[in-house]
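Hey, resending since the last one bounced:
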Amino acid sequence: MAFLPSITKELRPGPVKDWSPALAAILLLVLCLVQAAAAATTPAPSSARSTLARVIFSPDISEQATLLRGLIGSTDPGVEAVLTAWRGGSLFVHDNPDGSQTAFLLDPTTDGDGHAQGLSILDDQPIPGPDAKPLLFSPSELTPADTTAKLRKAIKNTLDFMALGNPDPRFRKDAVVKLGQERNLEYLPLFEARAREEKDPEVSRRLAEALALTRTASPDPAVRVPALRTLGELRSVTSLSFLQSFEKKLRDGPTPPNDESLLAVHKTVLDIETYQQRGNLIGTAFRGFSLAAVLLVAALGLAITFGLMGIINMAHGELMMVGAYTTYVVQNLVRSAFGPSGLPLETYFLVALASSFVVTAAVGLILEQGIIRFLYRRPLESMLATWGVSLLLQQVFRHVFGAANVQVGSPSWLSGSLVIQDVLFAYNRIFVIFFAALIVLGTWSLLTRTSVGLQIRAVMQNRAMASTLGVRTDRVNMLTFAYGSGLAGMAGACLSQIGNVGPGLGQNYIIDCFMIVVLGGIGNIFGTVTASLGVGVTDQILQPWLGAVMGKITVLATIILFLQWRPAGLFVTRSRSLEG
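The structure tokens again:
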């Protein structure tokens, strides 16, 4: 710094001044700035964290409830974590040497002895000990912070209101439904503020329901009656139980019959009940379509083999069981090879479908070559033989996999439901319906657009003439039976996604499959499709009214009466072999 006096001397003539005090002042200022910057890097407690500490240590429940409401708009994720831990008994209090207290959570990371650091709720920093090192705590030696039932309810309400700002619409919708059921008029400003900001249409609809349901608690009829009408316009199924009890309360009380509130709630209940009944009918019909789709895939192979060979295959249900267990085995193989998660597990079901077809077709091929080929034109013997095979397969699978049902998981793209007008359309059932349509289209193309299909139809119409023209009828029988068995295996794979998988799986569907084949017309694809829809949908519609057993008995009795009038089924297949 020796050059400073010379420069100053050139600029300002006169005696040279001493600059040491100025340099000292500048150095002091720099040190102060460095300390301030260092202090700024230390996290300071936010206002929400400070309020949270006041809630924890306040002895007044009313003050705690008031302070909790002030935390609703907080965007600090730590506040929600602390409240959740407090409600679940995972918040603790440490007594400091100076007599103060510090609320803290345990660090998830523990040492070899199971001890963990205590993280202060104010700044998420470890609590220091006398030697300035973080204190370690044993979870078994700590006592959770005090709570009461009323305080836990207040914490729950606060968490629900904080969930209104959750990025996931599902959490926001659940929170709105929960809070709306409380019918607390104090929540109206919060609902209205959230409704102005909400962008998701489903959450907006739930907010409108919550606002209307909450306004029904108003003592002013000018507010209550429009709210009741709004619930009817929204078809609020979630509020139906409250509306029914509210109507009963008004009717049993001193309310006159022409009271506007009574008339409004009565009309609302009727509208929602009608809407719910229509939704239940649509949902039942959808379940019937999915059941019909499974029965169609299973009965399609049975219709082809029965129409071609005249074989009554009582083991067809067990072939469905083979396909279901093949799906279970493929699932376990994928899990053991790739772990419990990941892309391969998401795609395992597609591999399982193909595997079910191949494995079951191989079983059917062995069955045809080993037993059935010797029993053509002997229906009674073939029925008894295949019934014995079905019992044998049941015992084999019961011995290998156990008598209890096995668990077959669904990939994420087959889990969950599509909700339309409060009606649930399960993704796995939607997939089964589209898959059955694809199988029908493929089978129809095989029979009408390929040389193999031409040979199959020729054998079905006149076996002797087809053999005379050079068609290898034994080979056609073998391939057809294997194909029909493969379709049964894929039906079992589909059933694994919508039902239980056990040794008796096939016995639950074999009778339905035979009814469908006979009702639709033996060997007729279009008849099989029509009969499957009729049996599946009718069965699902009758079960809620008559029960599972009486529903099936009614369907069976109806089919028997129908066949008395039309023995050949809905659609008659004209062929010499069937008429002879």
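Strands lie at 92-95, 101-110, 116-120, 136-137, 417-420, 423-426.

Sorry for the duplicate.
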